Amino acid sequence: MDENISLGRMQITDDLSKLLHILPEQIRSSLEKHPQQESLIEVVMDLGRLPEARFPNKAEYLGETPVSKEDINYCIQRVGLFSGDNRAGIERTLHRISAIRNRTGDIIGLTCRVGRAVFGTIAMIRDLVETGNSILMLGRPGVGKTTALREIARVLADELHKRVVIIDTSNEIAGDGDIPHPAIGRARRMQVARPELQHQVMIEAVENHMPEVIVIDEIGTELEAQAARTIAERGVQLVGTAHGNHIENLIKNPTLSDLVGGIQAVTLGDDEARRRASQKTVLERKAPPTFEIAVEMLERHRWVVHESVSDTVDTLLRNRKPSPQVRTVNESGHVTITRELPEVAPKLASSLQTPESAPNVRGWRSSGQMQPMPVSKAEIKIRPLADEFGEENSFEQLLDSSWHQQDIYAREHEISGPNGEDLPLHVYPYGISRQQLDQVIEVLNLPVVLTKEMDNADAVLALRSHVKNHSKLRHISKARHIPIHSIKASTIPQITRSLRRMLNMDDSGVGETTDLRLFSHNGSEDEIEALEEARLAVEQIVIPKGQPVELLPRSPKVRKIQHELVEHYHLKSTSFGDEPNRRLRIFPA
After folding, report:
1. Where are the domains of the chain?
2. How far out from the chain centre does Cα 115 lie?
């Protein structure tokens, strides 16, 4: 009989009675009377020792009689066959029984793990699952990787209607027996005869069964890592788990490093080494990562999300600290997303100081000044940060000033929307980047809620080209009296201005402070430094002095966010030069 446990919006289903049924009488009776039975993780039985029950925060002995050979044989007779990895199961359940053998091959110990199907456990990363990108789950044993994998397979198959094939090496995802457990929904399951053949079954699944998604648990060998890359390059979405708590563990693991792109030593030229202020031999990523997204499951309700594995690996190889998302969920099921910015003050402050105050800085940052285009003979020098804020904590104070948040939405005062509706304003986005919308709403603390149902919307925000080509959208909004607000392009400045107009907020000019988090995609050191450089150029040279400015060379991705920041000031900018020295030129209004 199934047992259902409610946890916020999550539904937990297990068949604990079937696991208890295989245990000897004295152990079973102790567990059936135990007050914490519903949180049982596993039962450990070792020959000659007291049986042990393990719970999330403690472990305790069950009775005072040591486990005998007869007790172990009693359990073995009631479970399925043990495979090559010494694992067995109970048919039509998710429980896992693992064996410990002596030197002659006899089983002298059992670990009976409780298998639970948790519905709703992936609420924290559901938006990532829907993107179609490959996702790698990392975490210590027992944190819930396989449970999350099972739920992802069900959501992809049942709710997103994709062809999903599960490579179930130990029958842990879909349970023991030929009929898979209902927890995987419409997903199909392929069993593996021996663990060492897992990589062959992965390739066979793609070649024979036309999947859109492959789900694989515990990628642990080099052959499996190569098979995963082959599958990803064929356009199939991969969802898998690997051994390791963090991405750093995979980078240092020569067997699995290919999952994050592989690592190789590269010798730089003299100019490039000076530009980076590094040694001539450095470590770099060898290829695009197999998995675009990585999730570190630190705890059951606290996950760290790396939205771009390639950016994270590149940042780590440069001895910098990445700034991934931290997602948590409370008991009511509400998901909170935060991002901790790395500590970049020392390097950035030194890059903006003069040579006198930072004599060790080399390369193209050594001048310590930003110059406009040669309009006159006089050079315009940006005042050193230390002069304005003092010698210590100069950059921290600058960031505090730059990121100062005004309370746009005072909750103690009743505010109405543009048409008199109650706030928060429900907006139906069409053709607009959901990530950019969420970023603007979160950073500016706007009273806006995005909705997927037009019936619940107070307004529509859409690309202008989509509105022109979608007569049905116009007819529906007209019939339901829902105003349409259109923007030319899905950029941060245009989204910001449009949402502020919807809320009747003054957007006549640019405020004294600009929140750089609006434009930063992942909060990396390069992005923050480039945005701060562009902001200083605009506010200290282009606007007050009316002179154009050339910025330092940046990558295409970083130049894009610099363009968006310049657009926020209602100025124009262009990129010029050849890679890797291509850079931005900002023009006065």
Report:
1. 11-117, 120-339, 425-503, 525-587
2. 26
